[in-house]
From TrEMBL:
Its EC number is 3.6.4.-. It catalyses: ATP + H2O = ADP + phosphate + H(+). It comes from the Bacteria. Residues 259-348 are annotated as: Head domain (RuvB-H). Gene3D superfamilies: 1.10.8.60, P-loop containing nucleotide triphosphate hydrolases, Winged helix-like DNA-binding domain superfamily/Winged helix DNA-binding domain. This is Holliday junction branch migration complex subunit RuvB. Its main location: cytoplasm.
Amino acid sequence: MTQYEEGVVSAEASDDERVIESALRPRTLDELIGQNRVRDQLGLVLEAAMSRGKPPDHVLLSGPPGLGKTTLAMIIANELATPLRITSGPAIQHAGDLAAILSSLSEGEVLFLDEIHRMSRPAEEMLYMAMEDFRVDVVVGKGPGATAIPLEIPPFTLVGATTRSGLLPGPLRDRFGFTAHLDYYETSELQQIVHRSAKLLDVPVTDDGAHEIGARSRGTARIANRLLRRVRDFAQVRSDGIVREDTARAALALFEVDELGLDRLDRAVLDALCKRFGGGPVGLGTLAVAVGEERETVEEVAEPFLVRCGYLQRTPRGRMATPAAWKHLGLAVPVDAAYAPSLFDVED
Ligand SMILES: Nc1ncnc2c1ncn2[C@@H]1O[C@H](COP(=O)(O)OP(=O)(O)O)[C@@H](O)[C@H]1O
Ligand SMILES: [Mg+2]
C-alpha cells in the first residue's frame, strides 16, 4: 500500500462503509436531495408505468462514483413496491450466470446490474435479447451439435449503473428506455445531505458546520457523509460534540482536506507540477515518480478532480498547471514562457 491510499476524499466506498451507507440512503424519490431533473423525470416514468400496470422501461444510471446510483436503483424498486435483485458486471463471467439470474426473476422484479460496462461479451449479448424480448437462448452442447433452447423470462425492469457510459456498446445503450445522468452536487445540496445524515446519526450540526463539510466534499454525496463522520469523531473527542464551522475546519485540517476538498495527494501533484517542473508540460510517469505514487493513482485518483477544478490540463505534451493552480498554492503565476512549447517536453 502506498502513502496516499485510503484517502478520506476517495469517491469509492470501502467495505465497512457500505454498511453505514445503507443506513443513510434515502428510500423514496421525495427523500432524495438534489438531482432534481433526474428525480422529476424518473418520477414520471415510474408513475406512468404503475398506472398502466406494467413494469417501466429499463433504466440506465450513469455518473461518477458516490453520487447516488445504487441509492436510485433501490428507490426505483421501493417506489414500484417490487423486489430488487442486485448483481454486477464483474460478477457475471459467463452467459450462464446471467441466464440463471434472469430465469429466476419474478414478474415485475427490478434487476440492478451495477458496473454494467464490466460484463463479459457473451453475457452482454444475452442481455440484449432479454431486455427486448424477455427471452434468452440457452445454448446446450458445443460445436456443430450445439442447440439453443429458448427460455421465456417474466417481464422485468433492468436498472444498469455505470461510471463509464462511453464504454457501453451502442446496442446495449439503445435498449434502455430512460437514461439518467447524475451530476455533481452543489455545496448547498451537500449541506442539506450533511444535515440529513447528521440527523440519522444523531449528531448535532450547525448550518455553518454543514456548509463547511459540504464545501469540501468535491460535489460528492459519499464524501460528504464520510467527512461528516470524521468531523463528528473530532467534535466528540476534542470538543463538545457539536459540529460547528470551526470544529469542521480544525477536523478537516487534521485529515488534510483543504477548503476545496483537495487532499494530500492532490496538493503534492500540484506542488510538484508547479515547483519542480515549472508548471509543465511534464509526462504522467515523471509526475508520478516525483510524488512517489503509481501512475494509475495519479491519473485516476488525483487528476480527475484537479482537472475539474481547472488546476491541471492534460495535453498531448504532458500535464500542465493552469494559472489557478499557482494561485491555489499561493505562488505568483510565472510570466515567462511556462505555457509555450518547450524543447524539453517529456512525452508519455
Ligand atoms: N441525493 C442524495 N441525497 C442524500 N444522500 C445521498 C444522495 N445520493 C447519494 N447519497 C448518499 O451517498 C452515498 C453513496 O451513494 P451511492 O448510491 O452508493 O452512490 P453510487 O452508487 O453512485 O456510487 C450513500 O450513503 C447515500 O446515502
Ligand atoms: Mg454504487
